[in-house]
Design goal:
This protein is α+β, with helices and mostly antiparallel strands. It folds into two domains: 178 residues, no CATH class; 206 residues, no CATH class. Helix content is 54%, strand content 16%. The strands form three sheets. It has a five-stranded mixed β-sheet with strand order 5-4-8-9-7. The radius of gyration is 32 Å and the shape is elongated. The mean pLDDT is 76.
Length: 399
């Protein structure tokens, strides 16, 4: 150790430095664990599929006996009701489901056997469907219609219909490669269309047969010109799924949401809990930074005369800053190392259980990245503080 370092470290308080290292370790650990656990567990509570985000809700009016008998309010959404929904603070945008005003029949054949059924089509604005534009595009010249069907339909076929009818079971990849023949005709039977369908995927959350909006407009114009039914279902992009305000609004307006939303509620509560935990960790980290800055300031003040004399003798600013920089870097490195070891130990305790539940456990990388970034931020802030203090002493010498 150089003579300058020995002079400047005479009044160093090991207890203050240890206190900073401990509080910095706790603060960064809490934030990093929150990020890691949230990333590891969010897939368990998310009912998201590859076509529809968890932030989307499908709403419809509750069907009552009065609606069935033609008495009371209509099941369709009026313009005023849609505008009221769009005005809610938790709503980002609202889209309408468009139902096909024509008859739809589909047939599929494989291995010399076939099946034909009546279907129905619905469409939503393309911005609500998370499919590549090239895969969710209808070109009248090609005559191929991309279709998204509920995953439950395939499950019912494989484990219900196929066994009783002596038909083979079909996987998602297999049925996606089989052409789907579509026959559509107007209600009066005077107009018809024949096209080929292509199954673009299976949705776990949409209980409908979905086609692109461009195809719906094209077919409706030819088979049911001038006919436009009101929207009986809406798709809503919400800012915070699971928010209590959403449930209160749906209850007040007698609205229902399609599918099980318990996953969205759990995901919302998970985000809230992790946000609170992260806030606590950040507060502790900031307090640790304040403790170290206060300790360094007191140490510099105690060594003010020594620093002033060293600078008068021509000691470089970097040599004067070096002991304090080493002190800060050492404390930060010990805190960072403790956090990294703790993250590995903690994750080893729950990773197996989460993987058994089907979670994509990639949170360790995010936890390590969070710990590293926070440590670098704390180190940079304290280094700047030391630099300013020593530079202030050098300016005092020049006066």
């Amino acid at each position: 150790m150089s003579l300058i370092a020995k002079l400047l470290k005479r009044n160093t308080s090991a207890a203050r430095i240890a206190g900073f290292a401990l509080s910095n370790f706790l603060g960064i650990l809490i934030v990093s664990v929150a990020v890691m656990v949230y990333t590891d567990t969010r897939d368990i509570w998310s009912d998201d599929d590859s076509f529809m985000h968890t932030d989307y809700m499908v709403l419809n009016k509750r069907v009552t006996s009065a609606n069935t008998l033609g008495v009371g309010s209509s099941s369709e959404f009026s313009a005023a009701e849609k505008a009221d929904l769009e005005a809610q603070p938790w709503v980002r945008r609202v889209g309408e489901f468009t139902s096909s005003p024509f008859r739809v029949y589909a047939s599929i054949s494989s291995g010399g056997r076939g099946m034909e059924t009546a279907l129905f089509f619905e469409s939503v604005p393309d911005g609500f469907v998370d499919v590549a534009a090239a895969d969710w595009k209808f070109d009248p010249a090609s005559g191929i219609v991309p279709v998204i069907i509920p995953k439950e339909y395939l499950t019912l076929y494989n484990f219900g219909f196929a066994g009783s009818a002596g038909l083979p079971q079909l996987s998602e990849s297999l049925i996606s490669g089989i052409p789907l023949s579509l026959y559509m005709r107007s209600e009066d039977g005077t107009r018809s269309l024949k096209m080929e369908g292509r199954i673009a995927g299976f949705s776990k959350r949409l209980n409908t047969v979905l086609v692109p909006q461009a195809f719906m407009d094209y077919a409706s114009e030819r088979l049911a010109p001038g006919e436009k039914a009101g929207a009986s279902r809406l798709i809503v992009d919400v800012s915070s799924p699971g928010d209590v305000a959403i449930a209160d609004y749906l209850k007040e307006k007698s609205l229902e949401t399609a599918g099980d939303k318990s996953g969205s509620s759990a995901a919302f509560l998970l985000r809230v809990a992790m946000g609170i935990v992260m806030a606590i960790g950040i507060v502790i980290t900031l307090l640790s930074v304040f403790v170290l800055m206060l300790s360094i300031s007191l140490l510099l003040e105690k060594n003010r005369v020594v620093i002033h004399r060293l600078l008068m003798l021509g000691a470089p600013l970097a040599r004067v800053r070096a002991p304090y920089a080493v002190m800060i870097a050492t404390a930060c490195c010990f805190s960072w190392a403790g956090v990294i070891i703790s993250l590995f130990l903690l994750r080893s305790q729950y990773a197996g259980a989460l993987e058994a539940l089907g979670a994509a456990t990639g949170g360790l990388i995010w936890g390590l990245a969070t710990a590293t970034l926070l440590t670098m931020a704390v180190l940079a802030v304290n280094m700047l503080a030391v630099r300013r203090k020593v530079k202030g002493a050098w300016r005092l010498r020049m006066q």
